[in-house]
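Let us work through a complete example step by step.
Step 1: write down the sequence.
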Amino acid sequence: MSTVKEHLESGLYYRDWQSNKRTINGVIMIVHGLGEHCERYDALAEYCNSRGYHVASMDLPCHGKSDGPRGHVNSFNVYDDAVLGMYERITAHYPDVPVTLLGHSMGGLISARLLLKHQDKFNAAVLSGAAIKSPQEPPAWQVVVIRNLAKLFPALKVLELEADKVSRDPEVVRKYFADPLVSTEKLSAKFLVSMFEAMEDVKTQAEKITLPVFILHGGDDVMTDPEGSRLLFDSVSSKKKDLKIYQGLYHEIFNEPEAPEIYKEVIDWLSKSLKSKA
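Step 2: predict the structure and record it as tokens.
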């Protein structure tokens, strides 16, 4: 059983799933992906609650119930500040329990980039379908055009995200596009440049990451490239690191038909990793 608490503070929507177990094994902070929102992780959070983990998340700036223009930010630092603010808020309530950072897709990119400077705050990380490389990335000439546009017209919308293959389950896809909190707006030039820079930061500095990390990716993901997760796995310096490519699965592995088994794998890995670090 779970107790869900939610509130809006300074234009940001927060959602906490509190476990009713007597023993709390840790807190899991979820960072969602591009265009979506944290309520899409209800099923994952409830499973984590059943295993004795509190779960905390938020709608990132410019997403879901949080304030900000859809499809546009001037810098990914906006996301860094939001996630760090959520961390401070959570650890104020749970000061003596391990904290795991779980990021999906763009949330995986944000999380990996955050670890480059702030991994000391976390005990472990789980990165799902992290946007380290994108099969939808524009060709080099178009990137140059986008960079120039970002200087002159930063909020100009230039690229639409193709999200019709988030899952093999057609009902998940239907709900995705019918969800009023999901944004399918085109992405601005400045947003894209900021995302390219974040990807480059992670690719070139991943060796700085040393905490336990579990990297997961759908093998048939056409929204973020599984090769990005393989590159990340090869690059991080963590003594405890694991990579799982789920052959045949699409982008949102937590919303695929195999999701319950993946929930269990994540929590089993996390329980062992936190115990070995203690």
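Step 3: interpret the result. The mean pLDDT is 94.
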